[in-house]
Design brief:
The complex is a heterodimer. Chain A folds into two domains: 4-46 and 258-386, no CATH class; 60-238, no CATH class. Chain A has 15 helices and ten strands. Chain A has helices spanning 4-11, 15-47, 70-75, 107-113, 124-129, 138-144, 191-200, 222-232, 245-255, 259-288, 290-299, 303-331, 333-340, 351-378, 381-386, and strands spanning 53-58, 80-88, 101-105, 117-122, 133-137, 151-154, 167-177, 186-190, 211-216, 240-244. The longest helix of chain A is centred in the first third of the chain and has 33 residues, at 15-47. The mean pLDDT of chain A is 85. Chain B is globular and about 45 Å long. The longest helix of chain B has 18 residues, at 179-196. Helix content of chain B is 32%, strand content 29%. Chain B has seven helices and ten strands. Chain B is of the alpha/beta class. Chain B has a single domain (5-229), classed as Rossmann fold (3-Layer(aba) Sandwich). Chain B starts with a strand and ends in an 8-residue tail after the last strand. In chain B, a hairpin with a 2-residue loop joins strand 9 (215-220) and strand 10. The A-B interface holds A 3, 5-6, 9-10, 12-13, 291-292, 294-303, 381-382, 385 and B 54, 57, 59-60, 79-80, 83-88, 92, 94, 96, 98-103, 107, 111-112, 114-115, 159.
Chain lengths: 389, 237
């Protein structure tokens, strides 16, 4: 084992250089944690998707609506247990920056088909019994300081009211989803309420249904049901594309571009840059310590000890920087969760991200230290003692 | 006989290649040095003084010939065994000061003891004693940059003796020092030889420094020259 004190003191021989290298590594690991956490958020919806749900959408685009009449036909398909309508409402609260997701849906079916949605305040009876009622996610309630019984005015983006006023929803409940495929920043209200408003001329907007969510009977063949659905509507008036919930979520991720590749490229680039910077620091440190290495070897320290001394410096340097970055990422978790809000709901530093950051730190430490350590190991005593500076 | 042979060199040859030219720095050198002796190796630059010191200290290997120290043939030791042998048997006082600039005097001396089984407290005790012995009890916590050249050399000597080695190898121990500091270092080496019975092999250019040795070995162009045996006089005396 190399004497730890010598490792530490050699590292601090140039305090400013060591500090700057460690700080740059801290920034890199912090960035890695944040970028990786964004990917985790994007992928969490896919991972948490239920296997017994299928999504039916227009084969043209998600923004092309399906006829209402499809609901009854879907309910008759063998293997389909329940059908829920989902309509994207596209509104906002008070001003556009307060954007969040709102869906007009079959509220009674919603809780049946999505058991992960649990009402933590208010009652289902109240929600089901009042067509103006809505339920909102726990995160959203906290963000806007809303309680059960409050009125939530939502300005309709896709479905504006003809009188120019906002839609006033009464909050009948606050839900919390225990799985990340349903985020806690969403408002759900009665699909019938929207439909009546459109029919009466109180609001404008596209008619039809955005997507149908099918819950399958236990043991039903997903592939066969999906094929049956698409075959049923192959003749129109709108052809359908039926996917699993995971495929549907993945489609959303890909709609914002190849985010995993983009984020991975940035993260990889940052790590390579910091590896080169740390390697440069270690090579300079090794050159400055050449004579010391000669002295140590002459005194009787073995090649392996000298190898450990150099590698130890690299590991310590990257360890301090990496742990610093990780601490910054963990301590800023709440801040970023609020900042990213509805864009990346459920932002958090996952345990796997922490493990990846630790592995990246160790890897940089080894890669930056191995070359100078091997050089030090091979260096002959005389060559080292004759070196200058 | 109280003084048995400690160092036996037989037929020692060493060549270096520099710039395409082969230099024979030691040429079939044979010499025996006694345990407890104080030897000064003298000769012009390039005569093979430092090379011989390095070969005896086990930090270089001969092309040909035999080096036997205390009955051990160094040629038969691998690098790890040689390192272990150096740590246990040899104390080096290098030509430059060669102290770790980031460590205090006490830590520099203690460094050598990291290769032993001593506890931290024991290491501190031994290192402190060695520094007291060289007259630096009040400079233990100073770093090399805060010491004078003479003090640095004395720290190097303390490091060389802290493991109580049989043999101390000193390469130009007074080379970078002023007269007063050089005198103090020579007195210290004499004391180590006389009072603690250390075998000392010192390379020097300085005839005045060589005066403190009991045997002066002259080298010229890699070959053994004159050997002067002197009566044990006091340092500088």
């Amino acid at each position: 084992m190399p004497p730890f004190r010598l490792v530490w003191k050699n590292l601090l021989r140039h305090r400013t250089r060591a500090l700057l290298t460690a700080a740059s590594l801290a920034v890199a690991i912090f960035l890695l944690c944040v970028l990786r956490s964004l990917l985790v958020v994007l992928e969490s919806g896919i991972k948490a998707s239920a296997s017994n749900r299928l999504i039916v959408q227009s084969s043209v685009s998600l923004f092309v609506y399906l006829p209402e009449s499809y609901e009854a036909k879907l309910e008759r398909i063998e293997g389909v247990e329940r059908v829920v309508r989902w309509n994207w409402f596209g509104g906002y609260y008070q001003e556009p920056k307060n954007f969040f997701a709102q869906f007009a849906t079959d509220v009674e079916d919603l809780f049946e088909v999505y058991p992960e949605i649990e009402l933590v305040e208010g009652s289902q009876e109240d929600f089901f019994g009042d067509r103006r009622a809505c339920v909102i996610g726990s995160e959203m309630a906290r963000k806007f300081n809303m309680r059960v019984g409050d009125t939530m005015p939502v300005i309709g983006g896709l479905f504006p009211r003809t009188d120019g006023q906002p839609w006033d929803f009464r909050i009948a409940g606050i839900y919390h989803s225990v799985k990340p495929n349903v985020d806690n920043n969403t408002l759900f209200f009665h699909a019938d309420f929207l439909q009546k408003a459109l029919e009466s001329g109180a609001a404008n907007g596209p008619e039809g249904v955005g997507i149908f969510v099918l819950r399958l009977e236990p043991g039903a063949d997903r592939v066969r049901v999906a094929e049956t659905v698409d075959a049923l509507f192959a003749g129109g008036p709108q052809r359908t594309q039926t996917t699993t919930e995971a495929e549907f979520q993945a489609q959303f991720v890909s709609m914002v571009g190849n985010v995993p590749f983009f984020v991975g490229s940035i993260g990889g680039g940052v790590l390579i840059a910091i590896l080169l910077a740390t390697l440069n620091t270690m090579l300079m440190a090794a050159r400055e310590q050449t004579r010391d290495i000669g002295v140590l070897k002459a005194l009787g320290f073995r090649d392996g000890t000298v190898f450990g001394l150099m590698l130890g410096q690299s590991m310590l340097l990257t360890g301090v920087g990496g742990m610093g970055g990780l601490l910054i990422a963990l301590s800023s978790e709440r801040f970023f969760a609020q900042l990213l809000g509805t864009a990346f709901p459920g932002y958090h530093i996952a345990a796997e991200t922490v493990v990846e950051a630790v592995i990246a730190t160790l890897l940089i430490g080894v890669l930056a230290g191995i070359v100078p350590a091997l050089r030090a190991r091979k260096l002959s005593v005389l060559t080292a003692l004759r070196s200058v500076g | 006989m109280a003084e048995a042979a400690l160092i036996q060199l037989k037929d020692l040859t060493k060549t270096y290649t520099r710039g395409g030219e082969t230099l024979r720095v030691l040429d079939q050198l044979a010499l025996t040095m006694e345990r407890g002796g104080f030897y000064a190796l003298m000769g012009p630059s390039g005569s093979g003084k430092t090379t011989r010191l390095n070969l005896i200290g086990g930090i270089d290997r001969a092309d040909h010939g035999e080096i036997r120290i205390g009955g051990i043939d160094l040629a038969h030791l691998n690098n790890a065994e040689l390192a272990r042998w150096r740590a246990a048997s040899v104390g080096f006082v290098f030509q430059g000061f060669n102290l770790m600039p980031v460590l205090t005097a006490l830590e520099n001396v203690e460094l050598q003891l990291l290769l032993t089984d001593l506890t931290r407290a024991q290491r501190r005790e031994h290192a402190s004693y060695a520094l007291e012995l060289v007259g630096l009890a009040d400079r233990m916590h100073h770093k090399p940059g805060q010491l004078s050249g003479g003090q640095e050399k004395r720290v190097a000597i303390a490091r060389a003796i802290v493991t109580d080695p049989t043999l101390i190898l000193a390469d130009e121990p007074t080379g970078d020092l002023d007269r007063k500091s050089a005198q103090a270092v020579l007195e210290l080496l004499t004391k180590l030889n006389r009072e603690l019975g250390k075998t000392i092999l010192m390379v020097t250019h300085d005839p005045a420094a060589a005066e403190v040795a009991r045997t002066i070995v002259h080298l010229d162009k890699g070959r053994l020259g004159r050997i002067e045996t002197r009566s044990p006089a006091g340092a500088g005396g």
